[in-house]
Fold this sequence. Notes:
By secondary structure, this protein is of the alpha+beta class. It contains two helices and eight strands; from the N terminus they run ααββββββββ. It has helices at 18-38, 41-69, and strands at 73-78, 83-85, 92-94, 100-105, 115-120, 129-135, 138-144, 151-154. It has a four-stranded antiparallel sheet with strand order 3-2-1-5. The chain starts with 17 loop residues before the first helix and ends with a strand.
Amino acid sequence: xxxxxxxxxxxxxxxxxxxxxxxxxxxxxxxxxxxxxxxxxxxxxxxxxxxxxxxxxxxxxxxxxxxxxxxxxxxxxxxxxxxxxxxxxxxxxxxxxxxxxxxxxxxxxxxxxxxxxxxxxxxxxxxxxxxxxxxxxxxxxxxxxxxxxxxxxxxx
Length: 156
C-alpha cells in the first residue's frame, strides 16, 4: 500500500502571512529601541570627541592662516564664557557645561578674566600651550608645540 506524505493543492503557495510579518516587524522595532536606549551614552562621547576635533581644527586653521597671510593669529579660549574662537575661520566653539577646560599658555597671552590665547606666527611657530579637557573622569589635551606650531591631540 502506498501512502502520501504531503499533498499540495492547486492554488496554494508557501509564504508568510501578514500577521507573521507584522509580528517580526514589531520584534525588530522593540530590539532597535532597546539598543538605542542602551547606547545613549555613546552620543555624549561622540559629542566630546567632536569638541576636541573642532578645537584642534581651529588651532590648525589659525596656524595655516598665519603662514598664508604673513600675520600673527591668536586662537582664544575664554574659560569663563565657555567658548573658543578661531580667528582664521571666525568660528566660535561652545564648551559644554559638563566639560572642564584649563589652558596653559604663555603669560603674555593670558588675562585675569579667564581668557588665554595661543599665538601663531607667520613662520609657523607659536607661543605654545596646552588646552586640557576633563570629562567623565578622563583627561584629554591638545598640545601646541612652541617651536613648530604643530597641534597634537592626546588621549583620544
